[in-house]
Amino acid sequence: MPALSPSLISKLRKVAEAPPPAALEKCDFCGKTIPPEHRHFADLATMRFLCACEMCTLIQAERGVFKPLPQRYLFLENFNMPATLWQELMIPVEMAFFVFHSARNKTIAFYPGPTGATESQLSLGVWEKLEKLNPVLQDMGKDVEALLVNRTGAPHEYYLVPIDRCYELIGQMRVSWQGISGGQAAFETISRFFRELKTRCL
Description:
Strand order of the largest sheet: 6-11-10-7-8-9
Radius of gyration: 21 Å
Distance between the termini: 56 Å
Structural class: alpha+beta
Oligomer: single chain
Order of helices and strands: HEEEEHEEHEEEHEEHH
Number of domains: 2
Helix content: 25-40%
Number of helices: 6
Largest sheet: 6 strands, antiparallel
């Protein structure tokens, strides 16, 4: 059997060492393969998020059955959240997201845990105080955009993001959560998520 040439061996080695291709995503409406960057729609009745190709994005926007998710990502650098106001929210962890729920006609707070997103009691008065301190919240998209708060480290971080990113974070935390406090894996998951999120906002 003839020996393999050095150039062929080098090429084979590069193929073997190459990272596996990213999993292909498909449009939830037509099944077509779509690129990583694509539009999403929300089924508000079930809080299910749907991927859409360019053609289905146009079709679904016209039909109006599902709500298109916004594409803006804002890092709120000068967000004003006094410690006393955070205490009034009575959230037992240092992370939460807030979204206006049209069907219930109010803003709802959720915080993450090992079983998923838990709703917290949020009084109208506390949210109104927060809006007065931060007028940007008055422009938050109803049902589809959220204020995401991360106070697990210093400095604290505040973002306006599409609502599906909040549930993405919850899902990642559920997978990595260990024990009562979450463990190192959960901490690393949170850190990585917010590093990537901040880069997205730049």
